[in-house]
Write a structure and sequence with these properties.
By secondary structure, the chain is an alpha+beta fold. 15% of the residues lie in helices and 36% in strands. The protein is globular and about 55 Å long.
């Protein structure tokens, strides 16, 4: 609408429902566009309740330890993993009178830390980083990666919009991976842009993707960001 958001005097932007607040490139983009230094990243589950958020000293999620018990387990076996290692986050709520949950598997993958207090003074368990969801993980040609890894790359690139969509085509014997992005005016005269983006994605996730350059607004028109959560991945194949 032509409004300079950075000039509105906003102090803090609060985000939730998407992992974007935990993706460094997305967080930096939000800070730049809104002219703020702090992103308040809220975290919770519909089945449990809002569980916590970060503070001004850290991007880690501080969990409300008096409201919920959190465990980090191996997704395939359910056995605990050491602090700092990736595992599935499992919750037991302590205040849910109407919906008590015992060791509820969230499918969220993250790393827990309780080794030292945060600079803000809190000593509760923290999620150092949310890696993604086990049911969002993309398995492609022997590599496993999360959409947030592609998001980090796309939102660091000049000449394209922050929007993207991943397309995994499994209709053939050999699957194909594509990433759709919107090219801006600043990128139209750069013939190396698709190759440079493909190489950056390869370094991030371990596989090469075919880059499809779309017009600005094309992904929004396709419904990528419609509803409460963005639809960043399309899987094409007999099972879909």
């Amino acid at each position: 609408m032509g409004i300079d958001l950075s000039g509105l005097g906003i102090d803090t932007v609060a985000v939730s429902g998407e992992p974007g607040g935990a993706v460094p490139a997305t967080r930096a983009l939000l800070c730049e566009r809104f002219g703020v230094s702090h992103i308040a990243d809220g975290y919770g589950l519909t089945e449990v309740f809002p569980l916590g958020g970060n503070c001004r000293h850290s991007t880690s999620i501080h969990l409300a330890g008096d409201c919920v018990i959190v465990e980090c387990v191996a997704p395939d076996t359910g056995t605990p993993v050491p602090p700092g290692e990736v595992g599935e986050l499992v919750y037991t709520n302590l205040v849910g009178d109407t919906q008590p949950l015992l060791r509820y598997r969230s499918r969220d993958l993250g790393r827990l830390s309780d080794s030292e207090p945060c600079e803000c003074g809190r000593t509760l368990v923290r999620i150092e980083r949310l890696e993604g969801r086990s049911d969002d993980m993309i398995s492609y040609r022997g590599q496993n990666f999360f959409p947030s890894a592609v998001e980090q790359v796309v939102r660091e690139f000049a000449g394209i919009s922050p929007e993207y969509r991943i397309v995994v085509d499994r209709r053939r014997t050999l699957a194909a991976l594509g990433v759709q992005v919107e090219v801006l005016a600043a990128g139209r005269d750069d013939p190396s842009l698709p190759d440079r983006l493909a190489e950056a994605i390869r370094r991030a996730v371990g596989v090469r993707a075919r880059i499809e350059m779309l017009e600005p607004g094309a992904l929004a028109a396709a419904g990528v960001a419609s509803g409460l959560k963005a639809k960043r991945v399309i899987e094409l194949g007999p099972e879909h």
